[in-house]
Specification:
3 domains, 14 strands, elongated
């Protein structure tokens, strides 16, 4: 009985969900579809957030991806080459696929559907560059986050079974099983399939910066045009005013709200005096401010912009911002590159743990030794530092040149082409050896005269 209980899952993660809806977020405006629309707005409308996301995309587009064999035997190498072929055989370039995955950063999660094909050459449908009859990936099709919200389906233990989608153009409800999906998340807590947006901590700063900018724009407009004052007869304000007088008041309010400095500048008002007086019944004027505002809105908005960038570890985008923050000896830009490497590692882990093993099963191969998808470094290698490190390794007796995987890694770091397996490799030479092909050195020109015992 005790052994049976060992296999049972008794507790729950505690994820707040009702049906397919998740309510883990404590701010109601950031939940579900409404939250997705806010994060989309932040990505598209905020200059600083848009700049951060663009920088991330441009840096990651330069990353070189490799597939490392599980071992050194010919079969492992051949299967690693097969995975590389599958990445090149997609209907969308692999770099664009990775950029699609990066939508997990602002949205909290990204979902793609695995679509397979048989590799039967260019004449088949779908076409392939290869004609070995194996199963490969046709495409890694993205699925919009806004079409998946409120449709998650879980098993009795809280495991994710899949998600229901309602999307254009037909808006039919479709169930996407988890076995067909890859789910990417920058941060995972309580097995929440919606993850957590990297913009979550920037939301408060974005909220205030946006509203202060709006108030600032209204204030600038009013400073340029002046405060509009429209005088109308007092009977227009009476509670029992006639419909005509109420219409006059409504029209005056609309005029005041619409006063701007543009090509339509100007106002025509009736010239009407109170009987027996020189007092105008209607009057319009602009009052101007003689001083400056108490708050410097530029500094306030700059402060909130800096906070938004800091939440994404990228305050270097703010021009003139002193960049003195360090972490374990690293400057902030390097820390940002480290964060990018972590997100790339998250993407690679999903392929290594799920996508590649599934592909191997479809081809009838064992999954104990699957190749690994590896992203390159975001930062350019310092070849001087790397060369010094390798020299010290060789001095300690480590022969890195005999390891093909290390050789491939160093070639990638230096921007060199991959080793041609068919090329002849010259035998290593000692520092005192002659040029290649010169044959053994007899030392005829360097030998000391033989000691014959006779005086020279």
């Amino acid at each position: 009985m005790a052994d049976e209980k060992m296999n049972l899952e008794i507790g729950h993660t505690g994820l707040k969900r009702w049906g397919g809806t998740i309510s883990e977020e404590f701010l109601s405006e950031l939940r579900g579809l409404r939250g997705q629309k806010i994060y989309h707005e932040m990505s598209e409308n905020s200059a600083i957030i848009g700049g951060c996301l663009s920088a991330i995309e441009m840096l990651i587009r330069q990353v070189v991806w490799d597939v490392e064999p599980a071992g050194t035997d010919a079969e492992d190498v051949a299967r690693a080459e097969f995975v590389e072929e599958c990445l090149r055989d997609l209907s969308t370039p692999w770099t664009d696929v990775v950029i699609e995955h990066l939508s997990m950063l602002p949205r909290g999660f990204s979902v793609v559907e695995l679509v397979y094909k048989r590799r039967d050459g260019g004449d088949a449908a779908p076409e392939s560059r290869f004609s070995d009859g194996r199963i490969g990936w046709q495409k890694l099709a993205p699925r919009s986050q806004e079409t998946l919200i409120d449709g998650w389906e879980f098993d009795e233990n809280g495991g994710l079974k899949g998600v229901w989608q309602v999307a254009a153009p037909d808006f039919q409800r479709r169930f996407l099983p988890i076995a067909k999906l890859l789910l990417f998340r920058p941060r995972v807590a309580l097995a929440n399939p919606e993850g957590r947006s990297v913009l979550r901590n920037a939301y408060r700063s974005y909220y205030f910066a946006k509203r202060i900018e709006e108030v600032e724009g209204v204030g600038i407009t009013r400073d340029l045009t002046g405060l509009a004052v429209y005088g109308i007869p007092p009977e227009c304000f009476a509670a029992d005013a006639s419909a005509e007088l109420k219409a006059t008041k409504t029209q005056a309010e609309a005029v005041v709200r619409g006063i701007t400095r543009d090509e339509f500048e100007g106002l025509v008002v009736p010239l009407d005096y109170q009987p027996g007086t020189s007092n105008k019944r209607y009057d319009f004027s602009l009052l101007t401010s003689g001083g400056q505002r108490q708050f410097d809105t530029s500094k306030i908005i700059e402060r909130y912009d800096r906070r938004q960038a800091l939440t994404m570890l990228h305050d270097i985008l703010i021009l003139g911002q002193p960049n003195t923050t360090t972490y374990k000896g690293k400057s902030m830009p390097n820390l940002f590159a480290t964060a990018l490497g972590g997100w790339l590692g998250t993407i690679a882990a999903v392929y290594n743990d799920l996508a590649i093993p599934r592909l191997f099963r479809l081809n009838g191969w064992p999954i104990e030794k699957t190749p690994q998808l590896k992203p390159g470094s975001v930062e350019a290698e310092d070849l001087g530092v790397l060369g010094d490190f390798l020299s010290k390794l060789e001095a300690a007796g480590f022969m890195w040149s005999k390891d093909s995987r290390v050789d491939a890694r160093l070639r990638r770091a230096a921007g060199m082409p991959k080793r041609d397996p068919n090329a002849e490799t010259a035998p290593p030479t000692s520092p005192d050896a002659g040029p290649p092909g010169a044959g053994p050195d007899n030392g005829a020109d360097n030998q000391e005269p033989a000691d014959t015992g006779e005086d020279q």
